[in-house]
Amino acid sequence: MKQITIFFVILFISQYNTVAASPEWGATGHRTIGEIAEKHLSKKAKKQIETLLQGQGLAIVSTFGDDIKSDDAYDKFYTWHFVNFPFDQKYKDSEKEKRGDIVMGITYCIDILKDTNASQEDKIFYLKFLVHLMGDLHQPLHVGRAEDKGGNDIKVLWHYKKSNLHRVWDSDMIEFYNMSYSELARNTSDLSKAQIQSIQQGSVLDWTYESQSLAKKVYNSAQPDEKLSYRYSYDHFQIVRSQLQKSGIRLAKVLNDIFD
Would you say which domain of life the source belongs to (predicted)? Predict the structure, then answer.
């Protein structure tokens, strides 16, 4: 009887952790972004990045920001994965997170990579982190509301399984689509040179406001405890795919600016 009780306690904890955990974009999303970015790198930038990463591609290092969460030594970077400020307020006027946010984090990574005095070790670390954070920035709920933790506290059912709105946009829709990151990267929309240049225009802050604008729509897309299924993917997965593609294209632009 004691063994049965222990089994159900472990099962409950396991299920709770599965629901509570919410990796940004999930591994598949982040790797898709890295793979897309590779296609838009200049030859000069690609060569320097390959040297720094010792031959590793952007897809393989794209999950670095989540991987290091398992190490307490990197707890100080936790708040770099998102930014929360009121929808009716400008970022510059908002109260800032003392430990930093995603806008500050991306800016810091870029500064280190441009710093000729920065160590090789720091350049590698912050390059990996930059790849990850540029992905996070394009997940709308990473620019969501603080009061619901970017949708993490909005519980929903995803195909009859417990989830939350943040997780649905991070990984549930992507995993349900059942394509590998390389397949998703290959099957992006065909864009003209002018369209690509248009996507790459603007600053990190402009892209932050763009994600926040999408976050407003995401919040209106579902109610607490709602049962989300095929129709939800039909209505919203194209936004996910578009954000993955934009993120990869913009990541390449940022890296080209740094290394060209």
Answer: Bacteria
